[in-house]
Amino acid sequence: MRHFLGLLVGLAMTAVLLLGGGWAVVNTLGRTPPGATGLPLPSDTQTWIALAVMVVIGLLLGLLIAGRVSPLAGFVPSMVLLAWTVIYVLDAGRALSIAAEVPTVHASLDTAPVGMSVLLANGIYAMLGVALFVPVLMPSRWAGRARDEEGEYEEESGDPAYY
Questions:
Q1: Local structure of residue 109 (DSSP, 8 states)
Q2: What is the pLDDT of residues 41-82, one digit of tens each?
Q3: Which of 20, 25, 27, 43 keeps 20 to 30 A from 124, CA to CA?
């Protein structure tokens, strides 16, 4: 059951990395970083929302890498990201066409494939794929938690000399 839940978490994390990360990158590209000009921070809410999405994605990645979830939760997105990077290295046109065919649920996510292409071309997906794959190699992640079985074997002894 733990590994099935890990598979579902991995599929959700893959969608968050691809769609959420791609959308956030598109909404922050080409904009002056807040505060870089020495002027007060702009009130552009779209930039702040995109930065918040990046922070949430980073938090989820940290929890996934360091947490005690099934290793499948990190294995699924790592294989998607690494496989897509290999396709990009072998045939960049085909890899970028995969991003263009991503169906989105909401109209505001229609720009996500552009950001996904940027992250792919700059090697960010390769770096994230390796970071997600390393915890999968640790054998302790595959083993279940040790159970406390001492309570089952203890019996009350009525003889005080026993102690």
A1: G
A2: 556 788 888 889 999 999 999 888 888 788 888 899 999 999
A3: 43
Nearest-angstrom CA–CA distance, 155 and 16: 51
The total of other beta-carbon atoms located within 10 Å of residue 93's CB is: 7
Instruction: Say which residue the tokens 């065919």 belong to.
Output: 101
The residue to which tokens 């640790």 are assigned: 138
- Please, are residues 78 and 125 in contact by the beta-carbon 8 Å criterion? no
CA-based Rg of the chain, rounded to a whole angstrom?
A: 23
**DSSP state letters, 111-156:** GHHHHHHHHHHTTHHHHHHHHHHGGGG-HHHHSPPPP--HHHH---
pLDDT of residue 146: 65
DSSP, residue by residue, 27-83: HHTTSPPTTTTSSPPP--HHHHHHHHHHHHHHHHHHHHHHS-S-THHHHHHHHHHHH
CB burial of residue 1 (10 Å; 0-12, 13-18, 19+) = exposed
pTM of the complete model: 0.74
Q: What per-residue confidence (pLDDT) applies to 86?
A: 94
How many whole angstroms separate alpha carbon 8 and alpha carbon 76? 9
Give which of 24, 103, 10 is closest to 60, Cα–Cα: 10
User: SS3 of 159, please?
Assistant: coil
